[in-house]
Predict the structure.
Amino acid sequence: MNRSRAFFNEDGVAGFTHRAFIKSMGYDDLDISRPMIGICNTFSELNNCNRHLRELAEAVKRGVWQAGGFPLEFPTISLNDVVLNPTSMLYRNLAAIDTEEMIRAQPLDGVVLLANCDKTVPAALMGAVSANVPAILVSGGPMLNSHYKGRVLGACTDCRGIATEFAAGSLDKATYKEIEESIVTTCGHCMVMGTASTMSSIAEALGIALPGNGSIPAADSRRLRLAAAAGRQIVEIAQRGVFPSQILVPQAFENAITLLCAVGGSTNALIHLAAIAGRLGIELPLSLFDEISRRTPMLGNLRPSGKYQMEDLFYAGGISAILKQLLPLLHGDAPTVTGCTLAENVKDAQVLNPDLIRSLDNPLSPEGGLAILFGNLAPDGAVIKHSAASPQLLNHRGKAIVFHDLSDLRARINDMELPVSEECILVLQNVGPIGGPGMPEAGNFPIPGRLLKKGVRDMVRISDGRMSGTAFGTVVLHVAPESALGGPLALVEDGDEIELNVPERRVQLHVCEAELKRRKQAWKRPQSSCHRGYIRLYTEHVTQAPLGCDFDFLRGSDPARYTEQPKF
């Protein structure tokens, strides 16, 4: 409580002014004697995933008051993946800066982070761990399942599948429109194991969220009760002085990666976890992700890798039940914001649907859903979500069809004269952190129109971009170093032979070293149109995917302290 007490108890005009202005809002000396708890709210009417966070904020406030705290809500940047152009990832670091600086600048003893859409959750965690003030994350929760004529729908996995069938001519316009109006029907984030579900779930494994955070539906009253419980708990850990750096230790990140692999979570989580860890000076090399994935069976039968959705997971026992199944592979003694260890948090969890939540001796797959690839095409690594890929393409050779950027892709992907067969490997360049800019979710780019009409629904696709966690397909992502920096991906030309071998964790360009050297000498860096403002800052300082695409000057923490103002 040192920060708020120092703020309100200053001598002279500073303290007088602080007390007078807070009292202008109707508060009194009893209120300001309590721990001041900030409620960092990413509510926005431009963000459908976060539109209900005002109600959650009121529940948090109730819990804070119950525990003897003093809650004050403040806004931070809200990022909606559907609305923002060119990509919400471009602004994740800006949102993280906003969160960090608002926590740092204001005299808060603790903070509850209200977030929900894909990038708001990692941005909130990045900012909070950098400021290192006691914090608890409360996500807004997933949407309820949607339905169309007896079929269960999931945004946005079915968005892609349905749009593909419409483009192929196998779905009529009237049906397409009916499904459009049936697929997103409640508040909350996407109801499959996409990026938002993944990040909200692994927050439980990290120990920075209360049990239930990952799977309680947004529309369920138990989400409100979770928020109130978080309000009570933040007062306790603020008074005890429990900081994010004490919770988010290396073992916590290993637990998070284990859960990520066990549920077939989003590839985006690799970037976000690396960024959060980097704020704490913890290294998460890609090799660690692959090592953990190889030893972690896939237990969560969840779309897009499986058949169930987040509402079903909640009724089946939730993330706590999966973590309990995984305990032999976890650091069960890792601390959490509950004051108990991870193992203690999940000891009473039950599996109520053994087809959805599998056991270690009856997994969906003996390995986790992610694989890390290396080779001369990706010297610093790449990732594939092989649990959502076509098995027959996981060991494949083909000739490259190269698209130089998104404009080139849009211009030629549906050209009926494009010389492409389903055996080809599609390559998309210049969609990485700098080339995008912002590393857009363009990695699962469309199947060429002429093949789509013939019934082809998947091909090997390789890029330095990202893919939505709700997406599927045989898609190699995050190729590093990116092509805009002259990485090997920039040197690929039409007709080059590429080999993808997921069992051996290899992606290889079969072009001789002398030819690659010649191409490298002739390569010219694409001209950037980012000459001003935040985007210029981004392109000049963003790191590559293996380091989390964070800004180089934000790696490492700088704990917030209250500094007295000058006396007058």
Q: What stands out?
A: The CA atoms of residues 372 and 383 lie 5 Å apart.
